[in-house]
Structure prediction request, 216 residues.
Amino acid sequence: MALAATPATAPALRNPSWFPKLLLAGYVLLFAALAIHPYSRATWIVENLPIVLIAGALTVLYLRGVQFSNTAYLLMAVLLYMHTIGGYYTFERVPFDWFNDLFGFKRNMYDRVAHVTVGFYAYALIEYTDARGLIRSRFLSYLLPLCVIGTVAMSYEIIEWLYAATAGGESGAAFLGSQGDIWDAQKDMLADTSGAVAALLLYALTNKQRTQTRSR
Prediction:
């Protein structure tokens, strides 16, 4: 029998006070600092446009009363910060040697790690549907965020391909970021999905702890 996400078990989306404002202020400062003399202005614009839209959408939602937990905001902020840095250097040029050398990677894996953080948005998605009891089936409540992230991942890869084919040259190649890997798009989508799985597992763990605390 499917369990409903009831107000008794679902996490409340309450105003987490100063924390999301601090994250937003940090993002704005980082954006302003890295807007000065990026490696490629054309690449900087196309890389930052979707991130600015995401930050703007989260701000509007916050002001309209759709607010998430501190954990959700922290997870969502990772992509904003990492993508802003990637837009400044271009992803294949971000100084990330310590990570690449640690795991023996031949290519710069900064973009792949950033793709994992796309999946972190699954945490906020399930938190939202649970808090409002929108999905009665627990299986479907976890499946929906996973499918949403997968769809976003696929759509973004198509956008990258279209831009690279249209713009061409160094800007198109930098935005595509394949670094010569013919399976780059598939690996990026897998990274996005893996991030979503990790976020959902984290949510399952933290939500279980909340439920046990309330039942005592």
